Amino acid sequence: MLVGVLLFWGGGFQNASAQPAAPPKAGPTKEMTKKEAMRLGEEFGIIVDEVDEGIRKELGLQRTGGVAVLEVIGGTMADAAGIKVRSVIKEIDKKEINGLIDFGKALKRAMDQCNFTVGTYEPADPTDPVGWGVNFHFVGCKRD
What is this structure's pTM? Predict the structure, then answer.
């Protein structure tokens, strides 16, 4: 018994009983904006801004780049992870952060997955002669 009929089509055979594959449905893709990145930062528990020339001077940094933590909201994931005000976020889950768009994309991906790290460049204790230091903060997700 013949189950399907084979048709010759453009130099090859195709099973006539096979249905053409439907194109994948595209979900709503939202392009990352600076505003959305800042909103995600607040959801995470920090108020942030790009390290521009003004922030670079204020924090005494050698160059611009990264995202400065202006405020940490108490009782949030960022607070629990030990992220500090005046620190500069340089990576999230091994993804380099050069500005707010990088920050927003990496934070969204990390918060969706749960359990990630945030690499910060932080001012040391004022009595420490070394100055700034790099720290990694583990962010765990609370689950019921």
Answer: 0.73
